[in-house]
Each structure stands twice: as structure tokens, then as C-alpha cells.
Amino acid sequence: MLFWVIAAILTLGASLAVLLPLTGGAKGVSASSDHDLEVYRDQLSELDRDVARGLIQPAEAEEARAEIARRILRLDNPGPAAAARQASMATRLVATVAVLVVPLVSWGLYVKLGSPDLPSQPLSERLAKNPADSSVDELVARAEAHLAANPTDGRGWDVLAPVYLRMQRFSDAVTAYRNAIRLDGDSATRQAGLGEAIANAAGGIVSADAQAAFEAALKLDPANPKATFYLAMGMAQEGRLDEAKAAWQKMLAALPQDSPWRGAVEQALTESAKRSVASGEPANGPGAADVDAASSMSPQDREAMINTMVVGLDEKLRQNPRDAEGWMQLVRSYVVLGKTDQARDALNRSIAVFGADSEEAKKFTAFAASLGLTATE
Amino acid sequence: MIETGHFALVLAFALALVQMLVPLFGARTGNQKMMAVGSPVAVTGFALTALSFAALATAYASSDFSVASVWENSHSLQPLIYKITGTWGNHEGSMLLWVLILTFFGALVAAFGSNLPATLRANVLAVQGAIGATFFLFILTTSNPFTRLNPAPIEGRDLNPILQDLGLAIHPPLLYLGYVGFSICFSFSVAALIEGRIDASWARWVRPWTLVAWMFLTGGIAMGSYWAYYELGWGGFWFWDPVENASFMPWLAGTALLHSAIVMEKRSALKIWTLLLAILTFSLSLLGTFLVRSGVLTSVHAFATDPTRGVFILCILTLFIGGSLALFALRASRLTPGGLFHPVSREGALVLNNLFLTTAAATVLIGTLYPLVVEAFSADKISVGAPFFNLTFGPLMVPLLVVVPFGPLLAWKRGDLLAVAQRLMAAFAAALLAVLVTALFINGASVFAALGVGLAFWLICGALTDLAIKSGLGTAAPGVVIRRFAGLPRSVLGTALAHLGLGLTTLGIVGTLCFGTEKILSMRAGETVELSGHTLRFEGLYPAQGPNYAEARGRFALLGADGSTTGEITSAKRSYPVRQMTTTESGIKTIGFSQLYLSLGDEGTDGSVVVRLWWKPLVTLIWGGGLVMMAGAAMSLLDRRLRVGAPSRRKPAGTVPSASLP
Q1: B54 touching A, CB under 8 A?
Q2: CA atoms B124, B126, B131, B132: torsion sign
Q3: Which chain A residue has its CA at the smallest distance from B651's CA?
Q4: Do A138 and B150 touch (CB under 8 A)?
Q5: Cis peptide before B151 (omega within 30 of 0)
Q6: What is residue B123's predicted lDDT score, i.e. its pLDDT?
Q7: What is the tens place of the pLDDT at every residue in B597-613?
Q8: Does B557 touch chain A (CB under 8 A)?
Q9: Lower Cβ count inside 10 Å, N or C end of chain B?
Q10: Using CA atoms, how far apart are residues B460 and B452, in angstroms rounded to an integer?
């Protein structure tokens, strides 16, 4: 609404800039010969200065003076400045058209080109929104901002890595997994995830690096299905199709009936059967199938993700409790998630940290009250 | 806010249409009111364009990725300064900057044009409005910076890493101020052709605009050259790249215009030629815009590729260049030629200057367009590079530079060449001394190098001679000399400064090309290398993290004669993950006017790294000379004769006209 008001004011201003000179009284305008005379006078005085400085010989100066004088004589004798032809029909017609052109052209074009209903969306505003209203992208951006400030938060990297994988940001996923492994230690899931990220970043090719990661995962958990699956795919890509088939069949036999990997393995087996001769073409792993769903995360998934983030924050505050902003964020998060008990618990813990009489405690109580929450029940 | 900017842009287009038609119609019919519409409309149009630009810059600064161009050319992790400069670091935004500057100059004419004849002012503003209207239409239909995305992505694609540099904050605005500044000269010419007469004040009006545009274009080219020098890591300062040529051609033509406008202003001669030159200069600016913006070239600057845009700009080009030249052919015969002069005179010297400069501009034009023509007709891709320009452009420039010191010393109308030559004896002796010293005392100096140094000193001393003679040095008492020096017209000082700057640039080019040394070698930490008397020790590669890039920094210690560290040079290889691009940050150490320049190459497997090392004697003078030329132009702008008085009816004859700024 505000936009249309501004647009109307701008249009009015622009139209007035056209209209006012057309309706105002005509000022007496000097004829162009007056301007010329002014310049010639100036040239004459300049000539005198040049002579004084020796820039021109006196004889040549005399000649130049005569030239200028001839030009002055040649000036048209204009008579009174032309003011005769005023306010004819044509003027009024042109004035009307000109004044109409401004709003018609601008509004006509804008309606075709503009997006008046779309508000500005500065990034800082989008990131400050309530997490429950945020899209996956925004949540990821928020987590990235957190990790940029606390790059040693291994848990944060661990949460973010699989999300990157599902968003097809594979090189980011590689970095995140590596950071998680470096900071929080090895695990089969992380190594397998790292392998998957490396492979996908290379367009699905199971490279030596990816293979090393999958092998590390199998060392920690010999039954890890992702690592087994991708290693078999690597064999298939290298042309060792029989070995790959054998590995997949062995895997299929060992997998429980309800395992999500069954479909992927069966598909890989039928595909490899179709390709009688081996080729390096990458097969579609389950990672790729997941990826399709990732761009539109289901509400459950999103909630799961928020939960992990909130738990992470809670954990951090236990270790580093003197963080007033963090406490308020935690309390609000629990309230938004509908976990009133945990919210109240967090509020009590925060008050305990700063002391019941502190400024912070008052702020917390007031803040909680604004969310409809009271301390100790 | 962002939509307000979009609306303001559309509104500015509507106003440009009015500005194009109503004053023109008024000037044809002699209607005062219609002619008066031009000024307020030009000022309002500028205000709206500025509002639009501010809205876009705000979107860039706040990372509003709901705007498509922000999403394509920005990233939330970029430092704020590069977020803001990113506004014009892309096709859409740079076109908006182009029209912003165009409307700014239009508004200046409106604001300070009260001393112009009414019809001339109306016609100038109408032509300016016509240029504005076509470019607004171009932006709105093919390159709209306000196209929105819904839903908005959360992260942008980052600005081209080569552009993430302070150079982007300085170079394009200066260059555009130059390019677009010549549009005023163009508008004045076309207005004169429309009227069929050249007012006496015409040249006095065109000259300050030429000076302003020339000053900014000089600065823009110099800064662009320095930016390419340190950012691209090749150690070169000029590559004869078509994009560079695109800015150099208007500069050459503009320099010619600058000089022919003096003749026209002082002696009312060369009127028709000056008019044609003004048209050609802006046409070359438009051609430069076409070359860079249409994507017919592929180089560092050519970040736009879209055939519809190319065709549109080609149409604009045809319309304005073809239209103005056709008008010139029709009307030029109606214009009256001006004063007479002897071949050996100041006027004659300026004509000679014009001949050389326009031929040079034509040479560059051929070298730039020939590959395109070949490509269009035979599908072969050839490139015309330094060898062509060294063979053609160089020989044209040398005689011009040789005669430069004569020009300002010649008298108007009829000069005495012998007397001037005698006055220049001191400068000639100094130049000869420079040649001898170079040839005898500098190892490896060729005859050409020595002559080059001599030419530079000839220019520098010639400019100083001009000042010395005009303030009466050697003939008058010291007190008188100082008083006369202080009383010299600003334009005399400006001329001397500009010619001095030209000499400095020449000296820098000769020094770098003839005495520079280079080394490429593979170094490991702890190793030292010696180049032209400077010893460097490689301290090793260190990883570092920037806001939106990771880099490997190579540190080098500059060692003194006794082996102690006297300075440090850092060169880095940066990798930007978002664009998956690598850039080289060269390491530069300025010693006096010379520079030690190094850049990192590939890393070997054994911990070694390829290092390219240059010693560039006097290289900073190349751009320093450009700055001195700018200062000369600024000095000339302050000259009082450029302030044309407006007629007032009761003024007694002979008084100095009331001052009003150009």
C-alpha cells in the first residue's frame, strides 16, 4: 500500500515538472545575438590580455580585432525577443499530451514489468525471523552464520553435513564432514557421508579419496550399508562388474526386510545386469533420490532439524552458560516447539546462572512473560 | 524500496520521452514555454534515476537476493565495500550507472545553462533526452536490474573474484564519467546542426565539457590500466585488448577535440571540424559501449553475453551515429567558416595535433574491428595484438610527441618557428644530455631506449620552458617572475601540466619497456633470488582464510646489502569456492618510482612454487603522469575565460561579464 502512495507522489512530482513551465508565465528571453555579443566582447578583452603577455603580435592582434568587429557587425539585428507566437492551440495540445504521457507510460510499463507485491527481503531480516517460519535454506544460512562465528563447533558441522548433501551442495558437504571428523572424531556414519559427498561432488564417480573414506567407515562398522553399496558401485565403475554384483548380492542377503537400501541395491543389480559390458557411467545411488526430496523438506524433517539445532544450543549453554542472548533464544525455541516444560526448565537454569537479583534475570522473566511463560511452577 | 526504485526508473524513462520531444518542438516553433520544459524535466529525471540507483545499491548492500541481479552477482559473505561496488560490477547495474551519469550531465546543463541562448539549450536538452530515452528503453527491455525472484534464494552466486577489488570502486565510475561526458559535446553539436547555426558561445560551452569528460576519461583509463597491472598478475600495464582500445579511441578523439575546441574558442576557426570531431568522439564512446556490453568480445571486462542486447545496442549505434552524420552532411554547408591563420601558427600546430590524433584513433579502430570483421565473414578467429599497434601506433605517436613543446610557444595567427626553436634550446640540451647519460652510463641501454628517455625529457623540459618563458624567467627580476607566474592564466598552467604529465607517462613507459627485467623460477622456502640488484628470500607459503575465499600466501623478505630484512612482499593465490575461481594477488613493492612485482604460479609436488618476478623501473610514472594530466585539465577548468557571461540589458560596455560556472 505504502508503495502505491510513494508511486503516486513520484508520478505527481514528475507530471508537475512538465506542467509548471507550460502553465507559468513566459519570461522574457534574450535573443541569441545578445549572447553572441557578450562572447565577442569577452574575446576582445582577452585579445588585449594576450597582447599584453606577448602571445600575439600587435599587427596580428589588430587583424584579429578587425575580424571580431566584422562578426559583431554581421550579427542579426533581432529586434525584441520573439514572444509573438504564444499559447496557440498547438501549445495546449502538446502540453496536454506531454502531461498525460508521464503517468500513462510509467504506470503502463510498470504494471507490465514490476512486482509491486513483492517486498524487499534483506538477508539480515530474513535470518532474524522465527525459525519455525523459516525455509530450509534460511535455516541452513542461519547455521552457517553460527558456524562462521564458532568454527570449532563439531556438532554443528555434523548436523549441517547431511543437510548439505541433500541440498546437493556437495563440496560444502565434504568440508562439513571433514570438519566434523576433525573436531568430533571418527564415526562410520561420518566417514560414509564424507565418501558419498566426495563421490557426488565428482559427478557420482567413486574416486580414490571416496573409496578411502568408505573403507574407513567399514573399518568402524563392517555392516555399514552406504559404504558397502558405494564401494560396490566403485567396482562397477572400474569395470569389475562381477565383483560388484557379488558384493551387492551379499549385501542384499544381509539387509533387513525393511531397510531403505533394499530398493537401491535391487535397482543397481538390474542395471548392472542390463549393462552386459562394463562402462564407467555412474549409477543413481539412494543419495540422488534423497536429493530430489530435499529441496522441499517435509514438515517432519524440518522439525527434526530444528530439534537437533535446539539440542545443540542447549548443550552449548550447559558448557558456556553466561550467554544471555543464547538463553533467550533457547527459551523461545522451546516455546515455539510447544515444549513448555523444557522452556520453563531453561528459564530457571538461566536465572540460576546469573543470580535471581541480576539485571539479566529480570530481563529473562519479562521476556518469558511476553511469551506467556512464568518461572518456577 | 526496491520496487520504488523500479518505478522511479520507469518514470525517468517517461520524462526522458518528454524531454526529447517538447523542447525540440518548442525550439522549432519558437515557443518559450515549451523550451522551458527541458530544464525542470532534466533535473527531475536525474533525481528519479538517482533514486533508482540508490534503491539498487541498497539491495546490493543488504544482500536482497529477491532481486535477480543481486543474486547473480553478490554473496552475503563479501565485505560491504564489494557488496556496494558490485552494484555496477555487472551488466545491468553498470548500464544503470551509465544512464545515471547521462542524466546527471543533463541536469548540469539545465542547472548551469542560464547563460545559453534558449533555443540552443532546448535543443541540447532534447538530444540529451533522446540518448537517455533509448538507453532507458534498452535497460527496461533487455537488461532490467530490478527483475525479481520469488521465492528468493538464500545465497548469491558471488561477484566475479577479479572484480572484488577496490579498482571496481574507482575505474568504472571515472570511465563512465568520461564516456558519457562526451555526450554533452555530442548534444551541443547536434543541437547546432539542428539550428543550422553555431553561436559564438558554442565553443566556450563545449570546451569545459570536453575538459571535464577528458579529465575523467584520462583518470578512468589510468586507473583501469593500474588495476589490470596489479590484479591480473601478468605484470603488463597495457594489453591492446579490444576493451582497452574501446576506451582509448574516445580518448584519442577527445584529446583532438580538446585541442581543436581551443582554436574554435579563441579564433572562431575550425568550426565544422570541431563539430564533426565532437560527434565522432561520442560515437566512439557508443562504439566502446557496444563492444563491451554486447558480448561480441570475450575478455576480462566482457561479462555480458546476450545477442538481443547486442542487436539493440547496434540499433542505438546506427541511430545516433548514422543520424548525426546524416544531419552533418545536410547542414554542415550552412555553417559559416571562421577566422584565417598562417600554417605556422598556434592554430596550425593544433591542426597538426588533430591530424596525428585522429589518424592514431583510426589505426586503433582498425586494429580493434578487423578481427571482428574477419570472424564475421570467415569464421576464423584472429587477434590483432601488440605487434600491429607497435608498428602503426608507435610511429604515429613519436613525431607528435616531438612537436608537442612547440605548440604552446607559437603565437596565434602567425608564428615564428625559428624564434620558438631558439627558446627551446635549453629543453633540447637537457634532452640531449638525458640521451647521452642513458647511452653511456646505463648497461644494456639500446639506442632506441636512450632516444626514448630523451623524448620524455624533451616533453618535460618543453612544458617547463613554456612556463618559464611566460613568467619571464631570465629576463625579469625574480620578484617580477614570481608575480607573473602567479598571474598566469589557469589554462596556461593546465596546458603545461598536461604536457608534463604526458612526458612523465612516456618516461614510465620507456623505463619499464626498455630497462625492465624479469625472472621465472621455481623456489622453495629459504631460497633467495637476485634481480636487478634486489635480493629476495622466499619465506614459505602460509594458508589464510578471507571472508569469502581461502588463500595461500607466499611471503618474501627483501634483503639489504648486509643480509638483513628491509621489507616484506606478499603474493597470494586465492580460491573463491562459490565461483570455483582462482585469482592471483600480485605482490608489489614500490621503491622510488620503480616497482618490484612478483606473482605466484603453480605449486610443485616437492613444496616448491613457481615465482614470476619483475623489476619495473619508473613504472609508477605511467599512471602518475595520468594523474598529472588530470590535474592539468582541472587547472584549465578554473580558467576564467571559460565562464561565459549571460547578457544583461543595462550592462555598461566593457565590464567583465558576471561569472557563472560551466
Answers
A1: no
A2: positive
A3: A38
A4: no
A5: yes
A6: 93
A7: 988 888 877 778 888 99
A8: no
A9: N
A10: 13
Residues A313-329: what's their mean pLDDT? 80
The pLDDT tens digits of the residues spanning A112-140 come to 998 888 888 888 777 776 666 667 777 77
Question: Helices (H) and strands (E) in chain B — how many of each?
Answer: 20, 9
According to DSSP H, which parts of chain A are helical? Answer: 2-23, 32-52, 58-74, 89-113, 123-127, 136-149, 154-166, 170-184, 188-201, 208-220, 225-238, 241-254, 261-274, 286-294, 299-319, 324-337, 340-354, 359-370
Closest partner residue to A123 (CB to CB) among B7, B39, B62 is B62
* In chain B, where the domains are located: 1-164, 424-515+620-636, 517-616
Closest CB to B647 among A11, A35, A91: A35
Query: Are B39 and A21 in contact (CB < 8 Å)?
Result: yes
Q: Bridge partners of B536? A: B529, B558
Contact between B38 and B110 (Cβ < 8 Å)? yes
pLDDT at A131: 67
| A114, B147 Cβ separation under 8 angstroms | no
Alpha-carbon distance of B600 to B511, in angstroms, equals 24
pLDDT digits (tens, 9 = 90+) for B448-486: 888 999 999 999 999 999 888 888 777 778 888 888 888
Between A46, A67, A91, which is nearest B33 by CB? A91
Could you give the CA distance from residue B516 to residue B236 in angstroms, rounded to a whole number?
A: 11
Mapped onto helix, strand or coil, the DSSP state of residue B204 is helix
Element (H, E) at B563: none
CA distances from B197 to A98, A191, B332, B335 (A): 28, 83, 9, 6
Do A284 and A254 meet the contact criterion of CB atoms below 8 Å apart?
Answer: no
Interface check for A39 against chain B (CB to CB < 8 A): the answer is yes
Q: Which of B7, B153, B413 lies nearest to residue A64, judging by beta carbons?
A: B413
Residues of chain B with C-beta less than 8 angstroms from the C-beta of A118: 3, 66, 148, 150
For residues B339 and B268, is the Cβ–Cβ distance under 8 A? yes
What are the chain A neighbours of B470 within 8 Å (beta carbons)?
53
Q: How confident is the model at residue B622 (pLDDT cuts 50, 70, 90)?
A: very high
CB-based contact A170:A164 (threshold 8 Å): yes
CB < 8 Å from A in window 366-395 of B: none
**Min distance A39 CA to chain B CA atoms (Å):** 6
Cβ-based contacts of B146 with chain A (< 8 Å): 113-114
Chain A residues in contact with B40 (beta carbon < 8 A): 17-18, 20-21
Give the length of chain A: 377
Question: Which residues are CB-contacts of A376 (< 8 A; sequence separation ≥ 6)?
Answer: A344, A348
Residue B443: partners with Cβ closer than 8 Å, 6 or more residues away: none
What residue type is B615 in one-letter code? W
| B 135-164 residues with CB < 8 A to A | 140, 144, 146, 148, 150-155
First to last CA, chain B: 35
What's the rounded Cα separation, in Å, for the pair A28 and B462? 51
Residues 184-203 of chain B with CB under 8 A from chain A are: 199-201
* Residue B204 contacts A, CB cutoff 8 Å: yes
Among B270, B641, B372, residue whose Cα is nearest residue B492: B641
What does residue B398 show for φ and ψ, rounded to 5 degrees? -60, -50
Closest Cα in chain B, distance from residue A10 (Å): 7
B657 touches chain A (CB under 8 A): yes
Amino acid in the structure at residue B358: T
Of A22, A50, A67, the CB nearest to B33: A22
pLDDT in tens, B351-400: 899 999 999 999 999 888 888 777 777 766 777 778 888 888 888 999 99
Per-residue pLDDT at A31: 65
